[in-house]
Structures are given as C-alpha cells and as structure tokens.
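[Q] Does anyone have a clean structure-token version of this?
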Amino acid sequence: MVNRKELNPEASPQAAFGARLRRLREARGWTQDHLATLVGCTGRHISALETGRKSPTLPFSRKVDVAFGTMNTTDSFEREWREIKHGSLLEGFPEYLGYEGRAVEIRLFEVGIIPGLLQTPEYARVLADSAVRREAITPEQADERVSFLSERQAALVRPRAPMILAVIDESCIRRTVGGAEVMDAQLQRLAEFAALPNTMFQIAPYDIGEHRPFNRPVNLLTLADRSVMSYVESQTNGYLDRESTSVLPLVRAYHQLQAEALSQAASVGMINEVRKGIL
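[A] Here you go.
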C-alpha cells in the first residue's frame, strides 16, 4: 500500500484507537470507504482516525461498535473513547461511567470526601487543585476533572432520572475542604439533594463503629434489566464487577449499612448542626 502510515499503538490512547480500528477493518477485508458507509462518514474521515490526525467522538465510537459487534463488551470502542477523553481518571472508572449514565438506580457510599455526584463545583475545584499541588495531576487534567464532573452530574438530570441513594460516612461532613464558605455551600447542597423526589440521603455516624460494613468507597448500579454491578476503588485503581456471586454480597452489605445509618431527617439535622459551627 502506497504512503501507508504506521502507528505505534503505545504512543497514546488515540493512537491505540486508530491502530485497532485499522486492524479490525483489515481483518474483515473492508476498505476505508466500506467502513465509512457502515458508520455514516467518509473514507477520508476513517483514514484520519486510523492515522491519529483526528480524535474519535462518542457517537462514532458507538457506531463502530455496532459495525464490529463490540458494543457493551470490555473491548468496545466506546470504552476506548472514554479512556481518551478521561485519561486523568482512575483506571476502570471510564467504563463504569458508561453504565452510570444508563442506570435506573445508583447507590453510593463514601468515606472522607463528598461523593462526586453530590459535589459543588467549588468543592470539586479545591480537590483538583490540591492534586495539582501534590503533582498527582497536571493543571490541564484538573480542569478536565472539574469540567467532566459537571457533565456527569448534568447527565443524571433527565426525564425518568435514576433513583440515587447515598450513604456517606460522618467524616465526609466533618472534614473541612476549601474553608468555611466552600464547605457551608457544600453542606447546603447535601440538604438540597436530600429534598429531591428521586433521592435518599443518610449519614453513617461515627458511633456505629464496627457495624459499618464498608471501609472504602462503593458504587452499586441497577440497570433497566434489573442486573446489578458494583464499582469499588482503591487509591490507584477502580474495579467494575458484573458477577452476581460477588456483587450481591455488596448489595446485602449496603442494606445493612442503611439500617445502621441515621434516617434522612436525622442526617439533614446533623448537617444543619455542623453548618452552625462552620460560619
């Protein structure tokens, strides 16, 4: 082939996307124009993606998944796209986000910080800027994280919005982040969240002691087909699990956590008490 540009798939996630697109296309004996017909673009656009001159979009990635039969698999192009767009996020989290946007019920547990879906922009910015100062991420990645969080929250405000159940450890509201003004606004946001018709909010107080079943963040998603998956994070990795034998014990533990936690009314009452001591 004349003027064929070779890519190093390890050069970047974008290069890996293009190299894999070319590899699967050629394995099927398809021309660039044929694939373009299947996904609704031009052969020139396919060429630009395969050689890394253009970045893929989410709609294109989903159409390619349909063409290659990789939709909703661990090897989907949608998953690769999310890794490109959200490269500053923990490994495993981009895949989780694809399911979060389609979930009918979301259950959250967090220790130490407010869960992302409940954070104000100011609270999220303080956390991102702190990571920059520690040189854990770049300023550009910090901007990406804050912008993306806003997009993620907006995606859940839709007709037939999912039910969101959040249980947070008491440490989340006791740990001041960003100073009094930022923290007061964040606590007010939690109270507003609790008042929404599609939410349930509880605080797991310190005094439940050893009866708290989780020691790290846990997310549980229920999809429209009633299947349930879990997402658990360590300091460096995230793990998405769809196996019922390991997910169902987490669901049972979440129910036990809710039984031990304060009621929603008592939780909001604790938030109001903490707010009095901040300002």
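[Q] Thanks! Anything notable?
[A] The beta strands are 105-110, 163-169, 199-204, 218-222, 228-233, 238-241.
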